[in-house]
């Protein structure tokens, strides 16, 4: 079948503002959007720029807005969209470097700000840290994050206030705050208690809907809020 792809293009070195470029081509219902973008780039317009790496929903590098929703291009099939007219834009709220490529530095700065690494006992155990299945279950969902930014860049609070750490950083903080083996949860909670932290969230749910890993992000943010209010999840 024939499909029309409207792709937002922008090269800050020569374009005054973003514009839409249109490409009409033969596609299969089972083609992934990433495959079609490759076809456009390799056969129609080599100047089209986008990030991708694994092509299997693992690296998180091909987040983009497809028909108005943040998704990973490698995880969406043509037939998932139910239309042959497809719009593709860069994710919102981060500076566009070129076409579908955004500057991820502000996103990763927020990630770093929540200390997303394990901090154990001053004197580690002689063998390994022990964690029960029940304890692991509490952080199981948040360990699945691939840092794709689909959530943070779909959040209306982040769009209007880039200072908000955003849902991805909160998910990453949750992964360690609620890890029974970690000892720096209180420090991370203090970071999330600041004006840039969890209280900015207005439970818009866009983040949860956008997450390609089906992480219950809004619920996770709620757990962090409850930990701050009552000292418990
Ligand atoms: Fe992506 Fe989900 Fe992680 Fe957000 S929580 S960065 S949407 S994987
Ligand atoms: Fe934003 Fe998600 Fe909260 S979209 S407002 S972080 S529920
Ligand atoms: Fe790696 Fe899509 S290319 S997640």
Question: Which characteristics define this entry?
Answer:
single chain; 233 residues; alpha+beta; Ubiquitin-like (UB roll); Fumarate Reductase Iron-sulfur Protein, Chain B, domain 2; 2 domains; 5-stranded mixed beta sheet; two-stranded antiparallel sheet; 9 helices; binds iron/sulfur cluster; binds FE3-S4 cluster; binds FE2/S2 (inorganic) cluster
Question: Could you give a short description of this structure?
Answer:
The protein is of the alpha+beta class and 233 residues long.
> What strand order characterises the main sheet?
2-1-5-3-4
General form: elongated
CATH class of the largest domain: Mainly Alpha
Largest sheet: 5 strands, mixed
Secondary structural class: alpha+beta
Estimate what percentage of residues fall within beta strands.
Answer: 5-15%
So what's the oligomer here?
Answer: single chain
How many distinct domains?
A: 2
Give the strand tally. 7
Q: What would you give as the CATH superfamily of the largest domain?
A: Alpha-helical ferredoxin
Order of helices and strands: EEHEEHEEEHHHHHHH
What number is the mean pLDDT? 97
Show the helix and strand layout.
Elements lengths: L1 E8 L9 E8 L6 H12 L18 E4 L2 E4 L5 H4 L3 E5 L6 E3 L2 E2 L2 H9 L19 H8 L15 H5 L6 H11 L7 H8 L13 H5 L6 H14 L3
Parallel strand pairs: 1-5
Antiparallel strand pairs: 1-2, 3-4, 3-5, 6-7
Helix pairs in contact: 3-6, 6-7, 6-9
The structure holds iron/sulfur cluster, FE3-S4 cluster (F3S) and FE2/S2 (inorganic) cluster (FES).
């Amino acid at each position: 079948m024939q499909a029309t792809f409207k792709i937002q293009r922008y090269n800050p070195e020569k374009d005054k503002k973003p514009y839409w470029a249109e490409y009409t081509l033969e596609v299969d219902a089972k083609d992934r959007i990433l495959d079609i973008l490759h076809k456009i780039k390799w056969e129609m317009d080599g100047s089209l720029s986008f990030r991708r790496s694994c092509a299997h929903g693992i690296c998180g590098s091909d987040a983009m807005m497809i028909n108005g929703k943040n998704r990973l291009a490698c995880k969406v099939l043509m037939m998932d969209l139910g239309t042959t007219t497809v719009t593709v834009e860069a994710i919102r709220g981060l500076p566009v470097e070129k076409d579908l490529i955004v500057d991820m530095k502000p996103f990763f700065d927020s990630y770093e700000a929540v200390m997303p690494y394990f901090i154990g006992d001053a004197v580690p155990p002689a063998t390994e840290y022990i964690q029960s299945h029940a304890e692991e279950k509490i952080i199981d969902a948040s360990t699945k994050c691939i840092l794709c930014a689909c959530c943070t860049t779909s959040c209306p609070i982040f769009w209007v206030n880039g200072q908000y750490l955003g849902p991805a950083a909160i998910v990453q903080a949750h992964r360690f705050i609620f890890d029974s083996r970690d000892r720096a949860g209180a420090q991370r909670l203090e970071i999330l208690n600041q004006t840039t932290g969890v209280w900015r969230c207005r439970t818009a749910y866009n983040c949860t809907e956008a997450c390609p890993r089906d992480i219950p992000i809004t619920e996770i943010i709620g757990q962090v809020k409850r930990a701050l209010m009552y000292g418990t999840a």
